[in-house]
Every structure is written in structure tokens, then in C-alpha cells.
Amino acid sequence: MNTYPKSLSGNTDARTRESTSLSTTGVLVAPALLVVVVLFGGGLVLGLIQCLTNFPAAAPDSLTFEHFVNVLSDPDFLHSLMLTLYISTTSTAIAAVLSILLALVLLSLSVKYRFVHFIFQIPLTVPHLVIAVAVVFMLSPTGFFSRLALKFGLIDSSASFPLLINDHRGVGIILAYVWKEIPFITLMILSVLRNTGVELLEVGRTLKAGPWQRFRYITLPTISPSLGAACLIVFAYTFGAFEIPFLLGQTYPMMLPVWAYKNYSDVDLLARPEGIATGIIIAGVIIVAIVLSQALIQAARRRGAVL
Asked: What is the 8-class DSSP label of residue 2?
């Protein structure tokens, strides 16, 4: 005869089901996780070995931080780091603000205009390289907007069109990132608002709260963990992405991923360890951003926001 209380027995069954579910999930994700660990982890370890040893391998058993010191003390690295931080932060901030506005609009249209949501998900499937090429065709001095301005007499010639590609302000890169990342952030915010925000907003309206009060005291606290996690993910990607800065960026200073590739592919093999060291630094920043984003996601789940 079972003498355990029903509450204790129920808790035990719940823990058993949770343990079984975690085991099943672990088995299912193990093949994909193994590929990621081998490819990413193996490349990271190999890179660390190459940039922490002398090159050429005159004394392979000795470790040195000389390559990291050379990179961190290089003025070109500092200029590239500041440019990368500026572009990543600016594009993430602009995309976050526009995504909040779009999420609120789509939330009010979600019942009647589901097709809008389908259209909004299409950019998520478009590669960043395609976005970069589209930005070149639209914003270059001989692109679509330049010809349009010339046709309507807004400029005298193509040379009068403002330089938005390969410029020192990184306008083309920022616009490409904003265009690509707005749907991602918007859908994350919209998911949270659909699950937890609608009822709270209705309560706010019942209590006669104005639009600004509802946004400040209901919407913003509700979406802040998910918004922060999405922004960190976007920042991590834009900080380490290569193709868009390579196509749309200037030759000097260049963003860190392009600068790392330039050193790694240099004809001088002595520059290769410094290129690898730059890549390790970029990977470190990305890992920190991803860890922080996971912490925010867990905080959102504890608050009842489903991501």
C-alpha cells in the first residue's frame, strides 16, 4: 500500500516526466550538437594553438601572447574596433526602435491581417549577401534611388547623389543590417506581446491608462527581457559578420571581421597569427553576447513570456 502523500507523489511524477523529457531532448539534439562542437570548437582550439605559439614554429612547446599584444596595440585594430562597435550598436538600436513600433502596429492588426505577418517573415529567409547586393543596386551613385532622384530633378547628375556605399559613416552597412534584422526583432517582440501583453493592455485600458502610460508601465517592462535578448543576438551577428562589411564597407578603417580576413590572407605569413588572434577576440565578444542573451531569455520565461 502506497503511504506517500498525494502531493509528494505528484511532485515525484512531475520530476520523472521532466527528467525523461530532458533525456529525450538530449538524444534528439546530440547529432546536431556534435557537429557544432566539432566544427566550431575544433576550429576555435586550432586557432588558439596557432595564435598562442610562435610562427614559424621555432619553439612549438612555448606559449606566447605576443600576437594578442600586437593586435591590441595596433592603431588599425583600435580604429576597426571603434568602427565595428559604432555600426553594430547603431544598427541594433535603430532596428530595435523600429521593431517596437512595428510590433505594436502588427499586434493591433493581428486578427484581421494575418497575411501581413506572412509577408513580414519573408526577409528572414533572405541571405545577408543578397541584402548587400540589393543595397548596392539601390543606394549606389548609379543605383535605383539615384536614377529616381535624377529623373525628378532632385539632383543634377549621378555624382551629386550622396555617397551611401563604401562611406566612412557606414550608412550602407547600417541600412542593410536594419533592413535584415527588423523582422527578427519584431517577431520576437510580437510573440511576447501575444502571449502576455494583450491581457495586460486590456487591464490598462480598463483602468483608464493613456497610450504612453500603457507603453511605459505595461508594454516596455513586458518586452524588455525579450527585446534585450534579441538585440544582443543581433549585435553579436553584426559584430562578427563578414559579407556585408566586405561589400559595402570602406577600405580604411575596415570592420574587424574584414580586418581579420585581410591579415589572415596576407602574403606575409607572419601576419596570419594576428588575423587568427583578431578572430578569437571577435569570437569572445560574440560568446559573451550570446551568454547574456540566454540569461535574458531565461528571465523572460520565468516571467511567463514564451519565446
From this structure: -
When pLDDT is cut at 50, 70 and 90, the band that residue 83 belongs to is: very high
Residue 83: all three cell numbers together: 568602427
Q: What angle do CA 71, 77, 83 make, to 5 degrees?
A: 155
In a domain, 45, yes or no: no
- Better-scored residue on pLDDT, 62 or 244: 244
Element containing residue 115 per DSSP (H, E): helix 114-121
**91: part of which helix (H) or strand (E)?**
helix 75-109
The answer to pTM > 0.70 is yes
> What is the extent of the structural domain holding 153?
69-302
Residues 51-66: b if buried by 16+ CB within 10 A, e if exposed: bbbebeeeeeeeeeeb
Peptide bond into 257 cis (omega under 30): no
Distance, CA of 77 to CA of 239 (rounded, Å): 14
- DSSP annotation of 181 reads H
SS3 sequence of 7-41: HHHHHHHHHHHHHHHHHHHHHHHHHHHHHHHHHHH
Q: Please check whether residue 215 is in contact with residue 232, taking contact to mean a CB–CB distance below 8 angstroms.
A: no
Q: What is the pLDDT of residues 227-252, one digit of tens each?
A: 888 899 899 989 988 888 998 888 88
Domain count, the chain: 1
Strand partners, 53: 63
Specify if 169 maps to a domain.
yes
Instruction: State pLDDT tens for residues 171-227.
Output: 889 999 998 889 889 888 888 887 776 667 666 667 667 778 777 877 788 888 888
Q: Is residue 123 part of a domain?
A: yes
Whether residue 132 lies inside any domain: the answer is yes
Q: In degrees to the nearest 10, what's the CA dihedral of 256, 259, 260, 263?
A: -160
> H-helix or E-strand containing 276?
helix 272-302
CATH code at position 185: 1.10.3720.10
- Dist. CA 236–CA 148, nearest whole Å: 35
